[in-house]
Amino acid sequence: MLNPYLPFPVAIDEIITETEDKNLKSFKFVFLNPEDEEKFSYRAGQFAELSVTGKGEIPIGIASSPTEKGYVMFTVNKVGLVSSCLHSMKAGDIMGIRGPLGNWYPWDVLEGKNVVIIGGGFAFTTLRSSIVYMLDPANRKKFNDIHVIYGARTPGMLLYREELTAWEKRDDIHMHITVDGTDDPDWKYNVGFVPTITEQKAPPGSADTYAIVCGPPIMIKFTQPVLDNLNYSHDHIIMSLEMRMKCGIGICGRCNIGKEYVCKDGPVFTLAQLNEMPREY
Amino acid sequence: MLEYIQKIRELAKAALKDNGVEGVIGFRKGTVPLMNEPYLIKKPEDIDRLVWDSHCGINLTNYLTGRKGRLGIIAKGCDSRNIVTHIIENKISRDQLYIIGVPCKGMVDRHQISALFRDEIQDAKENNGRIIVKGSGREESFAKADVLQENCAICMHRNPVIYDVLAGDTVEEQKDVERYEDVRRIEAMTPEERNRFFDELLSGCIRCYACRNACPLCYCPTCFVDESRPQWVGKGQDLVDVKTFHFLRAYHCAGRCTDCGACERSCPVGIKMRILTKKLEKDCLEMFQWEAGLDIEQRPPLDTYKPEDPEDFIK
Amino acid sequence: MELIKIDKKAWAGGLEKLSASYALYGPVKEQHFCNFRALEKGEAPDLSGLNSRLSPKGVVFPQSQVMFTYTVDENQAEHHILQEAGEKASDRAVIGIRPCDAAAFLMVKQNFDTPEFKDPYWLKAYEATVKVGLACNDPCQSCFCTSTGCGPFSETGLDVLLADTGDFFLARALTDRGEHFLKTAGWNQAAEADPLESMKKKAEEKIVSAVSTEHLKDKKTTDLFDAPFWEEVAFACINCGTCTYVCPTCWCFDIQDEVQGKSGVRMRNWDSCMYPLFTLHGSGHNPRDKKPQRVRQRFMHKLKYFVDRYDGGIQCVGCGRCVRLCPVNIDIRTVCELMNNFELSQC
Fold first, then answer.
1. What is the pLDDT of residues A96-141, one digit of tens each?
2. Do β-strands A174-179 and A146-152 pair in parallel, antiparallel, or remain unpaired?
3. Which of C141, C238, C334 lies closest to B120 in CB terms?
4. Mind listing the pLDDT tens digit for each residue in C287-336?
């Protein structure tokens, strides 16, 4: 019987410090057994359990896109036991990843539609996966207009800055990068909270427009009324939730909201679905 | 003791109406024999729901931790000593409380009665110092004194030490009670014997933490067993981890425990862990002449330093 | 399959024969109450008296179980790579399990055996275990199994059903494994009569406790969630975890890594939604940091979320253990009635 608790052994290939406070690092992993990469085939929006042997496991959204081959990338915030240990590891160290887990953004529904991505802080990881996926030459034609509104506290806290700059130069994607505040005179982009920039820059809601929203609770709380005013219907607003998880496969019983397990029936839910669920997140 | 209930109801009702309390913490009748449920009564018209009998052993001070606003509470001797400790430790302030003190002659141990009766207890009544129990078509009557909770049998503080009103006349305190016979027995063992004793005592522990949660003293926002950085104690069934939990918890209660028995009462597998806290209680008495929760002005010995504190452990 | 009569004098001999082919488990009296554990050589299960204090779920789902072992010694070849642990589950038989606990196994199986993921630890142990049940002639006052789709003579989840007539046992094999079990014991004397139906009726009539569950499915989840009675229900609760640990249908667990020296294990331990740490995020946010929220979660899960997710009734078999053992007498029957009868206009 396949053991769903057994991780694929991986080695750390590269570590990139993403933010100026050094609390966020991106890790690229390569599979020790090459055939595991195939078994790990995933879709943008999914997560995996990163297993640090001797410390534990943490559920982290997959930041790399399925179109990027040869490695899997995760961006991890240093908050606790496992993430701190991970941050102190070096290239070549061995650990495990278990997955891919959870559901994914509804790519089949999004085909032929306008996609508005709204992200804040370090919740941007699966959104990077989505953007890279959509911008891939094999996929770009499947989607109409793509807007991205992404903000962080300061320029130094934005993730994937080089990629953001590169995307900003493209003409097949509208980037609206913002920071809460900055005294950097060279800052070229927006200044303002994500909900404010969303109000100014996001296209109006319609039958052909979907929003993917991912961010800290405070950002979501204030972005919601903006989207309502722009006439986004609740089944066109797609969200990715966070929850404390252990098994990641809907068995240990920990991550439920109502009858749904965030790790198995989510983490992607539409707002319409969330409205029917207990407000316990 | 049953005669207290009228007075308790009267005092609680008056407290709700006139003393500015949002509620009174007491008991309401349980849904199984020999049990009552802690209850926060808020409306004077519900006052008849309050009960008081020999099955009120739960320590209600447990429900005071971190509460805001003004509350009434029905407190026995041990409960009132825990209230003193709570006030000293800043978990609640004196002016938040309206304490209805109840002198107590002891609460009964339902697991002991169950074991003696052997069959399922389907009904239980109390009358004249006797507990009459019915089940499986037969009836048996026990003298209350024979089925008291173990801590009640050796209690020397049956009257509340702090209160705003008393629900009955004070009762005579038991004198010259031998409290530490079992502690001495274990003190006399060799270290190997003692280790075996503790292994046997704690081997059935399922780490449910009912003992910790029932105890009014255990109010840490994150208990040491739940810490992960560093992880002090494992969470499995390894006896070393189980013993660590129980021993350390006892140490954290040293100089504070009033032997209310809530821990033993709540254990679903019948572990008699009071032996650990009683040893520390005996040590505090002998080394510092200290009993917990008797004086709201005095700080406990593990909080204070006096030049005459014993030093013979410094070699 | 035919009804077998087991003379009580033939009981011990049969057990001895069985112990050669199965690891035997059963209720054993320890101090004042019974618990399920492995039987020693020559030990008979205690089939008198009331149900065990802890449920037999521990036979298939131990409180603490090693899932993987590993070494962190970088000189070793497979360092930091997890190796699957767990001995091959040998054939075992649990004798004396009550119908409520047996039905609980099937309920719990829905969690551990899903189309997408199968838990090998639970399933291997479950599939290796023959369940020999003992019908209840004298249900307790706190038993309400008949309200949950079960009953004192229910056969759900069992391989053999035993019934005690006083002078002898009656046994009916319900599956091929059950038949093999009886054959191995050498119990093959056909019963002269079949009084099981009338025994069952008598036992069911003795059940005095009941809960109503018929409206739970139709209630709106968010209405029940926001109901005003949770504060009062939760007041007495001390969030101790006793209810979840003694409950045969509770299955939540925690996964922990523990390292001693250079070798370590990844283990799982029972966990409880009653504990504040259960839903604590790494960021420090806790959606259930207040006691009433956790108490609400337990009852909503058992009486509503499970009903909606699996469409097979409430996640409770009416064994009554939580009712009897809760140190502050919180009663699931009371809460079930509150939920079943809740109307939005009652606010």
1. 999 999 999 999 999 999 999 999 988 899 999 999 999 999 999 9
2. parallel
3. C141
4. 999 999 999 999 999 999 999 999 889 999 999 999 999 999 999 999 99
In DSSP terms, B125 is beta-bridged to B132
Cα separation, A146 vs A174, whole angstroms = 6
Q: Which residues of B touch A80 (CB under 8 A)?
A: 228-229
> Residue C118: its chain A contacts at CB < 8 A?
1-2, 4
**CATH architecture group of domain A8-101:** Beta Barrel (2.40)
- Mutating which of A52, A55, A81 best tests the B interface, going by the most B Cβ atoms within 10 A? A81
pLDDT value at C346 more than 60: no
Among A54, A254, A277, the residue with its CB nearest the CB of C252 is A254
Residue from the list C32, C54, C334 with its beta carbon closest to the beta carbon of B111: C32
Nearest CA to B100 out of B83, B87, B114 is that of: B83
Least confident among A56-70, B255-269, C24-38, C251-265 = C24-38
Tell me: the pLDDT tens digits for C187-209?
888 988 889 999 999 999 999 99
The pLDDT value recorded for residue B37 is 95
CA distances from C71 to A57, A92, C68 (A): 17, 17, 10
pLDDT tens for C138-152 read 998 899 999 999 999
Say if the Cβ atoms of A1 and C68 lie within 8 Å.
Answer: no
Helix axes A194-201, A217-229, angle to 10 degrees: 20
Q: Does C280 touch chain A (CB under 8 A)?
A: yes
Please tell me the class of the A107-240 domain. alpha beta
Q: How far is C265 from chain A (nearest CA, A)?
A: 7
Measure C188 CA to nearest chain A CA, in Å.
36
A168 pLDDT above the threshold of 70: yes
Of A95, A242, A258, the CB nearest to C221: A258
Question: Quick one: DSSP state of residue C312?
Answer: S
Q: What is the predicted pLDDT for the residue at A165?
A: 92
Closest residue in chain C to residue A279, using alpha carbons only: C222
With CB atoms and an 8 Å threshold, state whether C305 touches A79.
Answer: no
Residue C109 contacts A, CB cutoff 8 Å:
no
- Average pLDDT score over residue span B187-214: 94
The beta-carbon neighbor of C287 closest among A57, A94, A280 is A280
Neighbours of chain B (3+ CB pairs under 8 A): A, C
Report the C-alpha gap between C92 and C8 in whole angstroms: 22
The two three-digit tokens of residue C8, written as one number: 């009580």
Q: Read off the pLDDT of residues B228-254 as tens digits, 9 standing for 90 and up.
A: 889 999 998 899 999 999 999 999 999
Query: Which residues, at least 6 apart from A186, have a Cβ–Cβ distance to it below 8 Å?
Result: none
Q: What distance in Å separates the CA atoms of residue A256 and residue A20, rounded to the nearest whole number?
A: 35
Q: Name the 3-class secondary structure at A179.
A: strand
Cα gap A243→A60, rounded to integer Å: 11
User: How many angstroms separate the CA atoms of A3 and A230, rounded?
Assistant: 47
From C258's Cα to the closest Cα of chain B, the distance in A is: 7
Interface test with C, best of A53, A87, A97, A277 (most C CBs within 10 A): A53
Domains of chain B, by residue range, sit at 1-106+156-176, 178-300
- If one counts every other C-beta atom within 10 angstroms of the C-beta of residue C40, the result is 9
Residue type, B41: I
Q: pLDDT tens, B60-108?
A: 999 998 889 999 999 999 999 999 999 999 999 999 999 999 999 999 9
DSSP 3-state assignment of A247?
coil
Specify whether the CB–CB gap between A261 and A255 falls below 8 A: yes
Q: Would you call B37 and C138 a contact, using CB atoms and an 8 Å cutoff?
A: no
- Burial class from Cβ neighbours inside 10 Å (0-12, 13-18, 19+) for residue A35 reads exposed
Domain extent listing, chain A: 8-101, 107-240
